[in-house]
């Protein structure tokens, strides 16, 4: 099969002070083209002030079939949450 | 036998029933995957082919204001096609395969785009009616069960409302213009009304995909429900324009709380779906031409990128 332009994941910071968020993906021959296409495709209405483009092949994703084992360690640690601690009602705002 | 296919399918259905979204790497029944590849790519192709009838009027828009709006709308449609192709690709099919399916006539696109845009009023009618119908369908799809599809729909719906408003504004301007302009708007409505009602697909009784699609929450409303919604919302808009919807049977039904409307010509629908509409050949030909004539650009860009990468690697090694 013919070679295709690689896939890129696009992240946009909507305004300074906020994080970059994943908005979608696109194909482009290189990073410069990915950047230009991301500008045209994902920021036509002032959706962002900064763009990251990342080759999709460089993303390592967790396996949903292993989510159980992966996230199990945090399941039984209620003491990591503030509501775990019994404090008197008189103590406001803590 | 906790891993049997039946159990997997049952737990998949349980997730859907609980309202969970399905993401690309999750296990899914093969038919769920295939149905989505078919449906989302069909939707993507519709956006791309849908650029053609409107593109026809960009150079002849009656004012600069209309021209920039139409250009922006057609550009949005390219973007919408891209969001949808990307969503389809998460299911394990390549962009080239999708394009090839379209060009080979194996994949469908919305039949509405096989009708010609004969006058400027058609651009108004498309924005008002075709985009109006699309929005009804797409608002429903923002809640569909497959995550990437639902997210693409949220983006698209946000952008689409300008499309419908610019269309209605074109119609309104014509209807408040000369007698000839109003006549042109009426003719456009006459030609686009029925094909727009067909956009929602065959009646529920004959729709082969509806039942399974509802079960998997791919669709949340049936074709006939969506069609009724379209009629109910459009009648008062036509009244506002002072236009007549070309249906002698159209009548408010007090007991149903909906408009009754006439019989749709399903023979016409199937004729156009099967490739014999007024513009089927022209549309596919235009797509094929763009694909073939762009081939050298795609190859050259890739060759350039590879060469640059090599050069960078060499200079890093030195």
UniProtKB/TrEMBL annotation, chain A:
InterPro entries in the record: PaaB, PaaB_sf
Domain of life from the UniProt record: Bacteria
Pfam families: PaaB (PF06243)
Protein name: 1,2-phenylacetyl-CoA epoxidase subunit B
Native source species: Flavilitoribacter nigricans (strain ATCC 23147 / DSM 23189 / NBRC 102662 / NCIMB 1420 / SS-2)
Lineage, opening ranks: Bacteria, Pseudomonadati, Bacteroidota, Saprospiria, Saprospirales
UniProtKB/TrEMBL annotation, chain B:
GO BP terms: phenylacetate catabolic process
Example GO molecular function: phenylacetyl-CoA 1,2-epoxidase activity
Coiled coil: none
Superkingdom assignment: Bacteria
GO CC annotations on file: cytosol
Pfam families associated with the record: PaaA_PaaC
Annotated protein name in UniProt: 1,2-phenylacetyl-CoA epoxidase subunit A
